[in-house]
């Protein structure tokens, strides 16, 4: 194996010469709504939503 953080690529496997970027195109709102729907489908009745007022890095 060729070690490379964080992946270990198996020897002999040909890597893509020019990978294409992700086509995952969504808004924050549709992602949030999808997540809430998945939580609902899991049968969760009550859950805590927290709103972060500011992000400090």
Explain what you see.
- By secondary structure, the protein is of the alpha+beta class.
- It is 25% helix and 11% strand.
- The protein contains one helix and two strands, in the order ββα.
- The protein has one helix spanning 28-41, and strands at residues 2-4, 7-9.
- Strands 1-2 form a two-stranded antiparallel sheet.
- The longest helix has 14 residues, at 28-41.
- The two termini are 36 Å apart.
Q: What secondary-structure arrangement, pairings included, does this model have?
A:
Blueprint: E1 2-4, E2 7-9, H1 28-41
Antiparallel strand pairs: 1-2
**What shape does the CA trace take?**
elongated
The proportion of residues in beta strands is 5-15%
Strand order in the largest sheet: 1-2
Number of strands: 2
What is the CA-CA span between the terminal residues? 36 Å
By DSSP (H or I, 4+ residues per run), the number of helices equals 1
The helix-strand sequence is EEH
Determine Rg (CA atoms, Å): 19 Å
Helix content: 10-25%
Segments where pLDDT lies below 50 for 5+ residues? Answer: none
Structural class: alpha+beta
Chain-averaged pLDDT: 78
Largest sheet, in brief, is: 2 strands, antiparallel
């Amino acid at each position: 194996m060729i070690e490379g953080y964080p992946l270990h690529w198996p020897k002999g496997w040909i890597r893509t010469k020019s990978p294409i970027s992700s086509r995952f195109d969504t808004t924050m709102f549709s992602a949030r709504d999808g997540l809430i729907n998945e939580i609902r489908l899991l049968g969760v009745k009550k859950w805590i939503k927290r709103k972060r007022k500011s992000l400090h890095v």
